[in-house]
Amino acid sequence: MSSRSYKIEIAKPLFYMTTCPHCHSLKIVKNGRSYYGKQNYKCRHCRRQAVEQSAEKLYSRDELLQMLLLERLSLRALARILKVSLGWLVPRVKALWQHIRYFLINYNIEKLATLPSLL
């Protein structure tokens, strides 16, 4: 079983540039914004400019499967998106539904709002 990671870009950056990507100096200052609205930075050491990059979060294949199941896509669509076979996908979907079924039987229905966090 190979472990693939999938990149999903987050709209707002989670961090600000603190070092120069070219010389790794700490002498970096803000230098206006780019045409597309991203923050520009200028290094006082090497005098090069850099644009702030958006943060990316890596999801494992199983985490992405759980998020896509909430979108109510077909199994074939999920297999195409994840680039896996239906034979790989079906047992994992069944296991997730067994977990949900166990949760619904053993816990109150009021806790149903926390269901996505349990997947």
What is the number of domains?
2
Q: Helix segment count? A: 4
Mean pLDDT, rounded to whole units?
Answer: 78
Largest sheet: spatial strand order: 2-3-4
From the spread of the alpha carbons, the general shape counts as elongated
Indicate the low-confidence ranges by residue numbers.
Answer: none
Number of strands: 5
Radius of gyration: 22 Å
Terminal residue distance: 21 Å
Structural class by sheet pairing and helices? alpha+beta
Describe this structure in words.
- By secondary structure, this protein is α+β, with helices and mostly antiparallel strands.
- It folds into two domains: 42 residues, no CATH class; 60 residues, no CATH class.
- The protein is 35% helix and 20% strand.
- The protein has four helices and five strands; from the N terminus they run βββββαααα.
- The strands form two sheets. A three-stranded antiparallel beta sheet has the order 2-3-4, with no helix packed on it.
- A hairpin with a 5-residue loop joins β2 and β3.
- The longest helix has 21 residues.
- The protein is elongated.
- The mean pLDDT is 78.
